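Now for one record:
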Amino acid sequence: QSALEYVAARKNMNVYHSMVDFLFCELYPKWRGSCMRFYLGSGPLLKELLGSEQIEDFDKKLTTALTVARTLFREQRCKSWSRYRFEVKKVLQAAA
């Protein structure tokens, strides 16, 4: 949690009900609207919009994103969300 708070120091996490929602929606902004509609009671859970293969793929990507956050936190070398997103994309592309 500290690692995610470090890389997202300038982001407002308070609009989300969980850190997982925050991480998912901020890394994949196309899903932010669906998440907010669910919070307002006018939309389904995200897991109801995604297939099981998509959920499994996103789980792996979010795990990787958390690993990147932990590394950047330990090294104290990331001061912006955009840099963090760049690092996550770089690691995910290398793994593909």
